[in-house]
Specification:
The chain has 17 helices and 15 strands. By secondary structure, the chain is an alpha/beta fold. It has three domains: 2-58, no CATH class; 92-392 and 488-498, Purple Acid Phosphatase, chain A, domain 2; 406-483. The protein has a six-stranded mixed β-sheet. Strands 6-7-8-9 form a four-stranded mixed β-sheet, covered by helices on one side. Helix 13 (402-419) crosses helix 14, helix 14 (427-445) packs across helix 16 and helix 14 runs parallel beside helix 17.
Length: 502
C-alpha cells in the first residue's frame, strides 16, 4: 500500500513539472529578481539587446569589493580658481589708442591715386596723419602715463617703411620715460596690399613678416616682456607689482593675411597660465587685442569678433578679469558682458572698451585709471591738433581749425559715398538723406549718445524709411541709432571680486 502511494506521488510531481515548470523555464518567464521600484517578485522578459544597448552611458555601478575614490576634476568649471586675493593696488594710469594706420609722406605725392584712396575710405585723415600723431604724442608725454598701449593696425597696410618710420616716432615717447606696448592688427603683417601712391597709380611695396614685426618693435613690449606665447606674437608685460598687461596677438597672417582673428591653441593655454599665476597673487590683468571679444556693433557684423571669442571670454571671466581693450571696429564702444537681459549691475561680467581709430575724427584715445581699491575709471579724450599747430607756429588753416575741418571732412567723405547708393529720388531729398547718414555716422564713430526718438523724427530719417527701407544703408542707420542709446565714452568699473558671481 505504501509503495503504491509513493509511486502515485512521484507520478503527480512529474506531471506538475511537465505541465507547469518546464514550459515556463523554456519560455524564460520565471524570475525572482526585484525590478526598479518593485515590491517582491517581478516577472520580466529577457532582453534581446546587447549589453552595449542597455547600459546607461553616464552611469557606472562599482563592484562591491572595489571601493571607489572621488575622481580628479577634468574640466575648467570643476577645477575652479579658488577665492580671489583682495590686495591693495598700485595707482596706475594708462593711455590706449588704436588703428593709427600710419602712412609715411615718402610713400605718396598726394596726387590722384592718393585722393582715390581717401575718397573711398571711412574718413581716415591720412593727409595729416603725421601731424595728428605728433599732437597725440605730445599729449601722451605731458600726461606721462605708466604706459601707452597701442592695439594694432599701426600702419595703413603693413608697409615695411611705414613700420620703420612709426617705430622711430615711438622712440620719442620711450625717451620720455613712458613704456610703449604694441601688438599687430590685421593690416600690419604679410599684407598683400602694402602700397605706395604716386601720380595716377598705386604700386606694391615690401610688407613685413611676423619675425620682422617683432624685430622692428622689439623695444616696444617684446624685449621687456616677462613671458611670450609659444605660437603667436602675444606677450605678458609686468607693469608693476599689482598690474600686468596681457598683450594678445589675435591676427591671422599665416599662410595668408585675413581680416578677422582668432587666438591660437597654444596661446590660449599660455593665457590661462598667466591668469592663474596673477589670480593667486591678487594681480590685476588687463588684456589687450586688436579684434573684439564681443559682438559690439549692429552695423559691422562680420570679421570683427575673435573666432573663438566665447572660449576666451569664458577663460577671462573664470579669473575675474575686469576689462578687455580692443580696436579694429573704428567705432568707440563700451559693453559689459552679461548672461542675458535684465542682469543686475551688481553681477560680475567683463567690460570691453573698443578704441575708435586715432586717425578718424574726432581722433580719440582712451585714458584708464586703476585705483588702489581695484576699481577703474575710463574716459576718452580728443587729440587737440589745433593747439599743437598753434604752439608750433603752423599756418595751415586745416590744422589751426582742426576740429571744424575734420568734422566737415568726415561728413564730406561719407556723404559722397552714401550719395552713390541713393537713386531715383529727387535731388534735394538725396542730399538731405546723405547729410542725415553722414551726421549720424560721425556721432556713431565717436561713441556719442544719440536720441533715437529725436533722430527718427527728422525729415532725413523719414525719407530713408520711405525710399530706402529695406536696404543695406537703412539697416546701417537703424543699427547706428540702436547702438548709441548710451554714451560710450566713459565708465566706472567696480572691483570684480566684490561683485556677485553667477
Amino acid at each position: 500500500m505504501k509503495k503504491r502511494l509513493l509511486c502515485l506521488l512521484l507520478l503527480l510531481f512529474a506531471l506538475f513539472a511537465v505541465i507547469i515548470v518546464v514550459p515556463r523555464a523554456l519560455d524564460g518567464t520565471l524570475a525572482t529578481k526585484p525590478g526598479p521600484g518593485s515590491e517582491g517578485t517581478e516577472i520580466v522578459t529577457p532582453p534581446t539587446e546587447t549589453m552595449e544597448h542597455i547600459v546607461y552611458p553616464y552611469e557606472t555601478v562599482p563592484k562591491e569589493e572595489e571601493p571607489t575614490t572621488p575622481a580628479e576634476p577634468t574640466t575648467q568649471a570643476a577645477e575652479g580658481p579658488g577665492e580671489p586675493v583682495d590686495r591693495e593696488k598700485i595707482e596706475t594710469e594708462l593711455i590706449f589708442a588704436s588703428d593709427m594706420h600710419y602712412m609715411s609722406p615718402t610713400l605718396t605725392d598726394y596726387g590722384n591715386a592718393f585722393n582715390e584712396l581717401i575718397d573711398n575710405g571711412d574718413g581716415k585723415v591720412v593727409r595729416y596723419m603725421v601731424e595728428i600723431w605728433d599732437a597725440f604724442a605730445e599729449e601722451v608725454i605731458e600726461a606721462h602715463p605708466d604706459a601707452l598701449v597701442l592695439s594694432g593696425d599701426l600702419t595703413i597696410n603693413g608697409e615695411r617703411s611705414n613700420h620703420q618710420e612709426f617705430a622711430f616716432r615711438l622712440a620719442k615717447i620711450e625717451a620720455a620715460g613712458i613704456p610703449v606696448l604694441v601688438i599687430p592688427g590685421n593690416h600690419d603683417i604679410n599684407n598683400p596690399y602694402a602700397t605706395q601712391y604716386f601720380g595716377n597709380a598705386q604700386s606694391f611695396v615690401e610688407t613685413v613678416s611676423p619675425e620682422g614685426f617683432r624685430s622692428i618693435y622689439a623695444d616696444y613690449g617684446y624685449s621687456e616682456a616677462v613671458s611670450h606665447a609659444p605660437d603667436s606674437l602675444s606677450y605678458l608685460y609686468a607693469l608693476n607689482e599689482t598690474t600686468w598687461m596681457l598683450m594678445l596677438d589675435s591676427c591671422i597672417y599665416v599662410p595668408q593675411n585675413e581680416v578677422d582673428g582668432e587666438i591660437k591653441e597654444g596661446t590660449m593655454l599660455w593665457i590661462e597660465q598667466c591668469l592663474k599665476e596673477a589670480y593667486a597673487q591678487g594681480i590685476t590683468v588687463i588684456p589687450v587685442a586688436h579684434h573684439n571679444l564681443q559682438e559690439l556693433s549692429r552695423v559691422y557684423v562680420e570679421e570683427c569678433v575673435i573666432r573663438n571669442h566665447e572660449e576666451l571670454l569664458t577663460l577671462l571671466e573664470k579669473y575675474l578679469t575686469p576689462a578687455f581693450f580692443s580696436g579694429h571696429l573704428h567705432v568707440q564702444r563700451i559693453l559689459k558682458h552679461t548672461k542675458g537681459p535684465g542682469t543686475p549691475d551688481e553681477v560680475y561680467g567683463i567690460t570691453e572698451m573698443v578704441s575708435n581709430a586715432l586717425i578718424i575724427p574726432p581722433c580719440q584715445y582712451g585714458r584708464l585709471s586703476l585705483h588702489t581699491d581695484g576699481t577703474m575709471s575710463y574716459h576718452t579724450k580728443n587729440t587737440d591738433v589745433s593747439a599743437w599747430a598753434a604752439r608750433h607756429g603752423r599756418s595751415n588753416e586745416d590744422l589751426l581749425n582742426f576740429e571744424q575741418f575734420s568734422e566737415q571732412y568726415i561728413r564730406d567723405v561719407v556723404m559722397k559715398q552714401t550719395y552713390k547708393y541713393i537713386k531715383y529720388i529727387p535731388e534735394k531729398r538725396k542730399e538731405r538723406m546723405a547729410e542725415f547718414y553722414a551726421d549720424l555716422y560721425k556721432d556713431y564713430y565717436a561713441g556719442r549718445q544719440i536720441d533715437y526718438q529725436e533722430r527718427t523724427d527728422e525729415l532725413g530719417y523719414k525719407w530713408w524709411n520711405d525710399y530706402m527701407n529695406p536696404s543695406v544703408q537703412f539697416r546701417q542707420i537703424e543699427g547706428m541709432l540702436k547702438d548709441s542709446v548710451v554714451n560710450n565714452n566713459n565708465i566706472e568699473l567696480p572691483n570684480p571680486i566684490h561683485q556677485i558671481r553667477e
